[in-house]
Amino acid sequence: MGDLTNSDYYSKNQRNDVSSNHEGGFGVSVMELRELMELRGSEAVVKIQEEYGDMDGLCQRLKTSPTEGLTGDATDLDKRKEVYGENLIPPKKPKTFLQLVWEALQDVTLIILEVAALISLGLSFYQPPGGDSGESAAGAEDEGEAEAGWIEGAAILLSVVCVVLVTAFNDWSKEKQFRGLQSRIEQEQKFQVVRGAQVIQLPVADIVVGDIAQIKYGDLLPTDGVLIQGNDLKIDESSLTGESDHVKKAADRDPMLLSGTHVMEGSGRMLVTAVGVNSQTGIIFTLLGAGEPGEEEKKEKKVKKQDGAAAMEMQPLKSAEGGEMEEKEEKKKANVSKKEKSVLQGKLTKLAVQIGKAGLVMSAITVIILVLYFAVDNFVLQKRPWLTECTPIYVQYFVKFFIIGVTVLVVAVPEGLPLAVTISLAYSVKKMMKDNNLVRHLDACETMGNATAICSDKTGTLTTNRMTAVACYVGDVHYKEIPDPGLLSVKSLDILVNAISLNSAYTTKILPATKEGGLPMQVGNKTECGLLGLVLDLKRDYQPVRNQIPEEKLYKVYTFNSVRKSMSTVIKLPDGSFRMYSKGASEIVLKKCTKILNQEGEPRVFRPRDKDEMVKKVIEPMACDGLRTICVAYRDFPGDPEPLWDNENDILNELTAVCVVGIEDPVRPEVPSAIVRCQRAGITVRMVTGDNINTARAIAIKCGIIHPGEDFLCIDGKEFNRRIRNEKGEVEQERMDKVWPKLRVLARSSPTDKHTLVKGIIDSCLTDQRQVVAVTGDGTNDGPALKKADVGFAMGIAGTDVAKEASDIILTDDNFSSIVKAVMWGRNVYDSISKFLQFQLTVNVVAVIVAFTGACITQDSPLKAVQMLWVNLIMDTFASLALATEPPTEALLMRKPYGRNKPLISSTMTKNILGHGIYQLVIIFSLLFVGEQIFDIDSGRHAPLHSPPSEHYTIIFNTFVLMQLFNEINARKIHGERNVFDGIFRNPIFCSIVFGTFAIQVIATIPNSKLRFLRGAGQLTKKNEMPGDEDMNEDNEEIDHAERELRRGQVLWFRGLNRIQTQIDVVNTFKSGSSYQGQLRRQSSTTSQNQDIRVVNAFRSSLYEGLEKPDSRPSIHNFMTHPEFRIEDTTPHIPLIDDTDLEEDPALRMIPQSQTGSQPQSPNKNNNAVDSGINLTIDTTSKSAASSGPASPLHSLETSL
Fold first, then answer.
1. Which among 17, 107, 254, 457 is annotated as catalytic?
2. 52: which of 28, 267, 895, 1166 lies 20 to 30 Å off by Cα?
3. For bias kind Polar residues, which ranges apply (predicted)?
4. Is 17 a catalytic residue?
5. How far apart are CA 313 and CA 297, in angstroms?
């Protein structure tokens, strides 16, 4: 145990307790018990004798009785918990939501995006210094557009936040589910404890120091203890010491039992001396820092350093909140090295790496092309100089290119894949609980979908595990049904009743039925229950016999194990002689018999030829009916000299046979159909059992594993080993390959045979696909086979703790048909991932190609960074949720398993991806290059930096997203089915996500004019209240309408002219108005009227010019470049529109203010953006005094006109 004995390490936690222990009224402190438990072997025996006299003395100090246990008084139990601690190890704290958010932020692509977004955000607030920003800034930094520049950076940051939150939430819910699963597994584990002279089953966490626990074969010890009484007890302490040999335990030689060790043989009773953090397991966990989050890293390092088995096999104590979790994870780490990656994980990792590399290359090329194009275009072709004051503007361009590149990368990298896998597995695991599959390791669920072979136990899995004695051979007569007790001699009957009652575990009982008319409850070993049932059928009772000779008076017990295949109990008779009762597999026990009881109940000689005849006439016919045959025998020994009980071969010999019993275990009614479904799904079912070959064959035929007349092998363990081993006794794979393909039933097999078979099938290279093997097991010795298999199923009811620990899935109802459900869910997970892949890859291919070609041809990606992030969010996160939660259907069992080497993307999927991809690209490129003509709108190509979104590109974005949405429905089918809507309403999650995404998309693309407040976010408007008139507002409205209409292109110009003429009428009406205010403003109205008429004339002339040349589709730019409309204004920053008008008419608020020395605009057609073209806007109803002064823009306009 090394450094584990450092008592000073614990004293800091415990010292304050020592004084209180004796106050608690107990005669021994935590530290004393702790020191006692660190001793081994004879040292411990000596220490107990010196300190406490004997075991009874220790029990008295702990205020407990070695036979009756604790009273079970609540206050006493609470006091014990307070003084000696509870039997749970405090769990490692789960990661908080913020920690998970922080982890999600570590994603490299997200970090790059965040940095790029921050640079973009910073630069958008930067104003170039100096008065003249030179040629290069022309058209790039229009002030109105600059105000909107911050939106893109902020939106990218917002998208990153969304992605991070969603990822963190998914991780958090996964963690929560995992802990729920752990606590569920913990609640499953109960232990037998004596309280108030009654044997009760207690949850492991409720055991306290001073309890008397009953231990038996297959138990995982939950606490430390000292053995009071034991029968043939052997313990596997390898999980603590690394020693693989089983350690014999006896009260007088080595009574120390440690938590986390396995009982491999025998039974006994122990006094619990240490629980929770004070037990040996707890001490190691404390050293590993289980409770302290700060030591997590150290713990992980230590675990890695420790010798594999010792650390990983450490069994936990049960904790309230899933304290088992971390050692489960340690186990998982260990398992990863033992088992290969699960089929799907392997394929996905490979695929994700390939896609990631491709995305990186594409994004790098995109950035390089954009930068080169920009540099060559500006500095080579247009021969512009690099101006230092314009550097920030160039930098903004480069940042924009960089963001486009990173966005291409973000869209290309399918980070939704791991998410989809996790969601799908977590969802399946949750649902599988309802199907009686308790999944301990997530990936087991998906591996099960690829299973090609299932090696199943017979008893309890294929059969009901309700044993009933239906035939027997007693006193030379073969009874086909249970005889009337009057037919048997009293002597034979007495021996039979005693043999069965005493030579079985005293924990095995038959209790009255809980429901009226129900069958009696069988508790304990089911075969023994069948024999006890025989005693009851013979109108006798086993309990009085047991009361006469209680368990502690049994002289010696040879417990059942897989080598002996029998159990024997020795009792001391009143005259001082000994009698041994034996029972076990009939052919094995009969071989050791030399006598048999005749009809009178007297022993007669039993010759070898009698044995052969009995096998042929009694045992084989019973076995062929599917009965398990058990032989009961006895032997008397003299009291003096006492036999050498350890010399087993001499003792278990020269027996006298009493009877042979045929026990029936009916096949579960649902098993035959489940096996047919397995065979249809391409899964071979093999039965591996410890039963007689004939019994096994009969049951296999009933189940449908074999059919009469088929060419299949049914062999027993001996024949199996003869066929697969060479002269030296080594297993040869070539020999194994000749046996396993035809093998269907392996009878009388040992756990080693089971492991050999599983290993042989997995290592075989006969088939092009490696076999994926699932194994069921319930016994302690099934552990190696369960671990070796790809998926190990342990029995939840009949299974031992050791088997459960070694397994991946626990069958809570021990039923074979639950395995078929697991196959269905596993295949469903695989299909869900494939559906998601088909969907994801279509989006990736299209988005990357569109961004790449768009960037190369138009110097700007048609899908902006923010838009791509939104697409990424819907296609990665929501789609993975929608497609990963499809419920399984029976159709999944109609095809063969995929196998390990089959590519993840099938040919049908490739066809779907390419077909849909090409269709989407055709649509998007059509919209990109001729969309403005189709919809008669302005082109969005070649927009300047920071220009607001155009209608053109918004249409492209909407089309792209909606195509993805409908493709999500297409992705529901991946095997070439025609009807993609089949069963769509069975998945409410899918429907709600599709409708939800659609709704958000509609809201997200509302034009900016409806969300004006965003545009004004960067500037503060000073509000000058001026007296207004309703008529004036109407006036403004008219102009405003005219403005909007004028932007629509040629067709709408006439309408604009009509509006202006209407407006002149309004002005005239005003002129003639006799109101006081009207007189005040008459002068300014006249001016505005004249201006209006001039504007109209200018409009007309430019319009007619445009109409004469139909090939030039004049936008408002062409109109603006008309010589009459050049505005050369030298007045610094005087707004063309009054602030008040901005307040009164929000639509005008978007009009940029004229910049000093603004140059003629670059030929940008994107005039949906309120763009330089509107520098002309004239306020006909100017209210400010300055508006018609000599320095006003209106004045200069008049001059130029």
1. 457
2. 267
3. 1-22, 1164-1181
4. no
5. 20
